[in-house]
Design goal:
The protein is mainly beta. Helices cover 12% and strands 42% of the residues. The protein has two domains: 106 residues, Macroglobulin (MG2) domain (Immunoglobulin-like, Sandwich); 169 residues, Distorted Sandwich (Glucose Permease (Domain IIA)). Strands 13, 14, 15, 16, 17, 18, 19, 20 and 21 form a nine-stranded antiparallel beta sheet that branches. A five-stranded mixed beta sheet has the order 2-9-8-4-5, with no helix packed on it. A hairpin with a 3-residue loop joins strand 11 and strand 12. The termini are far apart. Bound molecules: zinc ion. The site of zinc ion has 4 residues, from loops.
Amino acid sequence: MSLRACLIAVLLALAPLPCLSQQMPSIVWTPASLANGSPCLFAIQAPNASAVTGGWQGHKLSFFRAQNSWYALAGIDIEVAPGNYPLSIEITAANGTTQTLHRDITITAAPYKEVPLSVPEKFVQPDAEALKIIAADKLVKNKAFSSTAPEPLESGHFSPPLPVAPRTDSFGTRRVFNGTLASVHRGLDYRAKPGTPIAAVNSGRVVLARPLYYEGNCVILDHGLGLMTLYMHLSKFKVAEGARVKRGQIIALSGGTGRATGPHLHLGVRWQGAYLDPAKLFSLDLPTPTKP
Ligand SMILES: [Zn+2]
């Protein structure tokens, strides 16, 4: 071997080889194309990480571990305008070093419709007495919304609360009540005769189970990390506040209480104040968190 070739061989041997731990961790989200009202599951492959956190649309993302990947369930509120929303992810390695990744995520506009509806006038123009109840309800709901667990309480996928198909296009429609008031429908409606058993869509904790003005008899389940599900217009409660429930457990019977056009179940999905399409949540393939 010539001196030159020998030198090159030595230099090559000394050169740092790209090693696996320095590879950029992959970031994947489902669904791949996102619109307002959609839930979103982020998956990061970072088997050597000790913690993963992130930020998106002003929300903090809390990741949980499932085998070699880290997952965060997030979402885009129905009122979010289309555009590019930068995502930043911070990965902390076992030795304490951190790595920050950035992605631009495009959010498109979902084609939600406008529908006229008729409800009793007291729900469109509430009187002074009703306004007092509505204000008190707001405090009770805010307390429930702020009591989310710091770890995931859900276990695997979410499943529908009833074995029937929901009313098509019911999520996201702009509703014109009695020709005057417009509001966005932030949930999915299921046809249900009064007294139909309603199942928890995943495991969690009951943070609210009581009558409210608009929602009627209402149950709110916390699934941890800011994700909650809301069940409205119920006739009867089968769980009490504070109880732990499993996916599929009967939590209430359906009814037509509160601001309802007739007997049905309204199911809401709320993540850190954003309202998401429940049907899209059911289609996400969620892993079961690895117990620490
Ligand atoms: Zn509804």
